[in-house]
Amino acid sequence: MNSEISPPAVPVVHFDSHDFDAADRFDVWRENIGVFFDLASPEGGKPAQDIHARIDACNLGETVFGVTRSESQLFSRSESRIAKDDMDHILVQVFLEGGGLAEGDERIVAGDMLIIDMDKPHAMLNTDFANLTLVLPRDLQPDLSELLAPQHAKCLTSANPMVRFMTDHMQALWKSVPDMDMIQAAGALQGTLGLMEGWLAQEGRIDPDSTPEVSAALGKSIRAHIEKHLSDPVSPGELAKTFNISRSQLYRIFDPYDGVARYVWERRMQRSIRLLTQPQSDHLSIGAVAFECGFSSEAHFSRAFKARFGKSPSHLRMEASGNHYLRDGISAAAEDSAEFASWIRELAK
After folding, report:
1. Are 114 and 101 within 8 A, CB to CB?
2. I need a labelling partner for 216 at 20 to 30 A (CA). Which of 69, 173, 239, 332 fits?
3. Cα–chain center distance at 217
4. What is the spatial distance between Cα 85 and Cα 326, in angstroms, rounded to a whole number?
5. What CA–CA distance (Å, rounded) separates 315 from 277?
């Protein structure tokens, strides 16, 4: 008698807005895809309540993989939204149908890939579309994440044969994974991530603007050092000396981030948003937040913050204290239908 226990099947979820009353359809769609993005109509207002949207997804344990279909919409993530949900994932998307226009006039069409770093602001106006998305927690495959992050909001065009190869592979995985058990799916996922990492690493080596002599691990170490010292003076000279590299090497590492100074400034701005919006930091004054983020005066910090985000630090803190986020006015039907969103939130833990 065979007493072995079979591995569990891959969990699958199917969401279709047409399974709900017309009055609830936008709410249930927002409760699911809204785990990633704020939603608006192409004109900037609220999308029609009677919206058509569908999600078919598989929970692979460490990632979520699935196809989303819907009507033309504006999908966005602001700095304040990033700070509120604190979601450190990267989305790898293949557009199966339709496309859209991302920031920087990056035009996406069917067959292209799009990388979205959830830790960076993003806005894209989609046409009616269908895309295949792999949700990759940054820490799951750190070397791959280091290669993907600089590609944020950029179109990886299907004119590149390696992009076509990768998109074909991801579609083949999607076709097969619902029939796999969790052990088979884990092996297939690791193979896919390894293939993606090998492709992007090779693309980097032949890209004249890349940094072939500096490993991804070194770049990660420097960024971790910066993150730990955001309240201190951080200069290119100090970083080069600390890591025993030349300034030219350092500048090449940070070229995808618009330079060392820009990277440090952006990280300070992102830290300030977190300190201003997270309840555990409510005890900090605006001046204390400024100091924690490397600014020598509250006035300098407030000017820099308003120039970057269009509002004062005190205004953002007041907004955050309202605690209304996405869940205001969500119907009971939306609450009961958000299995996909709960999977994504579990990845963040």
Report:
1. no
2. 173
3. 21
4. 10
5. 11
The answer for residues whose C-beta is within 8 angstroms of residue 66's C-beta and 6 or more apart is 13, 55, 56, 57, 58, 132, 133, 174, 340
Hunting for tokens 């952006």 — which residue is that? 266
Tell me: pLDDT of 326 over 50: no
Reported as a single tens digit per residue, the pLDDT across 333-342 is 455 467 898 8
Do 304 and 264 contact (CB within 8 A), yes or no? Answer: no
What are the C-alpha distances in Å from 158 to residues 90, 114, 128, 168?
20, 11, 19, 11
For the segment(s) 216-321, the CATH number from 1.10.760.10, 1.20.1420.30, 1.10.10.60, 2.60.40.10 is 1.10.10.60
Inter-residue contact 276 to 287 (CB < 8 Å): no
Element of type H or E holding 144: helix 142-148
* Torsion angles phi and psi, residue 219, rounded to 5: -60, -40
Using only the alpha carbons of the chain, give its radius of gyration.
22
Domain ranges in the chain are 12-210, 216-321
Instruction: Give 291's pLDDT tier (boundaries 50, 70, 90).
Output: very high
Looking at the DSSP assignment, which residues form a beta bridge with residue 196?
none
d(CA 344, CA 32): 9
Q: Name the pairing type of β-strands 122-126 and 100-102.
A: antiparallel
**Residue 94 burial (C-beta neighbours within 10 Å; 0-12, 13-18, 19+):** buried
